[in-house]
Amino acid sequence: MSQEKIMADIDVLLRDFTDSQSDVQGQILIAYPQGLPIGETWKGAVDPIMIGALSAAVKLTFQNLCKNLKKGNLKRLFMNSEKGRVIIQNAGDKAILSTIIDQEADIVRISFEMSNIAVRLEKLLKDFDYDKAFEV
Questions:
Q1: Superfamily, domain 3-131
Q2: Domain ranges, ordered by start, for the chain
Q3: Pairing of strands 37-42, 76-80
Q4: How far apart are CA 34 and CA 13, in angstroms?
Q5: What does the pLDDT look like over 83-114, one tens digit per residue?
Q6: Cβ contact 73:84 at 8 Å
Q7: What is the per-residue pLDDT across 118-132, written as a single tens digit (0 to 9) for each?
Q8: Cβ count within 10 A of residue 14
Q9: Which of 7, 20, 45, 55 is the most buried (most CB within 10 A)?
Q10: Given the DSSP bridges, would you call strands 24-31 and 95-101 parallel, antiparallel or unpaired?
Q11: Total-model pTM
């Protein structure tokens, strides 16, 4: 599968989920650990490069904590704030999916759907050329 086709399929997958969920503010698929955005959907003004870098840094921090506590690899991280929630989920070994949701959102429903999306993203990313995608 070509790099362009993979990117198009990723965009469709992320857009379909975000558009079908009124309580999802956006998603971003991030190369991990680099923190560079691969694909994103936002219903507001958010800097995807900043979100990508911060999501990767948060995942790295908590991944190290899990290893130091001998709890294995971190798979998913939930964060709550006074105005919403963020879920960071693995999408294979080289990518993470961050989803920003409303405070009142059904976290179980969204987590279940994110797991399904992450599996599909992992399959798409199997042939993804990370070096080629981020050439300057």
A1: Dynein light chain 2a, cytoplasmic (3.30.450.30)
A2: 3-131
A3: unpaired
A4: 22
A5: 889 999 999 989 999 999 999 999 999 999 99
A6: no
A7: 999 999 999 888 877
A8: 22
A9: 55
A10: antiparallel
A11: 0.87
